Amino acid sequence: MTHDDPGAAMPDPARLTYRYLRVSVAVMGLLLLVGIGLDVASGGERFGSISGYFYSPVRSLFVGALVAIGPALIAIKGRPGWEDMLLDLAGMVIPVVALVPVPRELGQAICGAGAERCVPPDLVPAVVNNVTALALMGVPVLAFAWWTGRRALGTSALAGLLTATGAYLVLVVWFWGWRATFLVAAHDVAAIAFFLLTAAVAWINGRGVQTRITARVLTPMRYAQAYRVIAAVMVATLVAAVVGWILDSAGVWTLPFGWVFVVEAILLAAFIVFWLLQTAENWDQEATSL
């Protein structure tokens, strides 16, 4: 083996870092699924949703995995344009899913008059502390994003910065102005936004990958088909979940226990599959060219 052999040369550090960063996103998602599987196998308390396992021994994995995915999605540069913007937005909202737990059915005695579901009162100080820290750190992060992007503000880049800034302001105003509503709804809103953004990224990749001549593992056309299927599955699952919730709330039918778990499992699995496929597709991509 000699250094003159391109096939034997070690990949450059930037490319290795890019690969490992991409792989880590999928690993975090799989880590969460494994943790939940182990808790279920041990006979622990059953929850009706993946998010509910925040209240189980899986909490550290749940919070840690989702928080870790956020900065990784922001750091990874997708195809220039809308893909990169959507990845940044997804990276912004997923820490909210981690830091604001899904409300529990605790009854009015604990949640207050007229409220059956709420974040347990003993956890509220931690949520307030964590979200406040997230909001404060958002200021220098956004300032850095505007500073670094000031010389390359194309239409999509400008739209991305404006959307990110707007989303941040909405989060802060909602958190400080309507705290009770934020604690009840922020988790679900952030989770739905994350999966919609991911579905959009998958759909965009279904078009962008067709510009490639070759790719690892699959042909560009197969990648395009897979990405479109994943996007369709994610959107259809979200729509079905919303319709089911509306019909359940209206008393048309009663959804079975665990239906939210199934919805979240499908969405999380679709996200992991998409990310593994995109990682394989971009395995040889130069980090500097993204």
What's this model, at a glance?
The protein has helices spanning 13-41, 59-75, 82-99, 108-111, 124-148, 155-177, 179-208, 220-249, 259-281, and strands spanning 104-105, 117-118.
Structure description:
By secondary structure, the protein is mostly helical. The protein has one domain (13-289). It contains nine helices and two strands; from the N terminus they run H-H-H-E-H-E-H-H-H-H-H. It has helices at residues 13-41, 59-75, 82-99, 108-111, 124-148, 155-177, 179-208, 220-249, 259-281, and strands at 104-105, 117-118. Helix 3 packs antiparallel against helix 7 (179-208) and helix 6 runs antiparallel to helix 7. The relative contact order is 0.12.
Q: What key phrases describe this protein's structure?
A:
290 residues; mainly alpha; two-stranded antiparallel sheet; 9 helices; disordered N terminus
User: What is the mean pLDDT?
Assistant: 85
Helix amount: 55-70%
For the largest sheet, list the strands in their spatial order: 1-2
Amount of beta strand: under 5%
Instruction: Categorize the overall geometry.
Output: globular
Task: Give me the count of strands.
Answer: 2
Q: Could you list the spans in which at least 5 consecutive residues all have pLDDT below 50?
A: 1-9
Computed over alpha carbons, the radius of gyration is: 21 Å
Taken together, the total number of domains comes to 1
Classify the secondary structure makeup into a structural class: mainly alpha
- Total of helices: 9
Span between termini = 31 Å
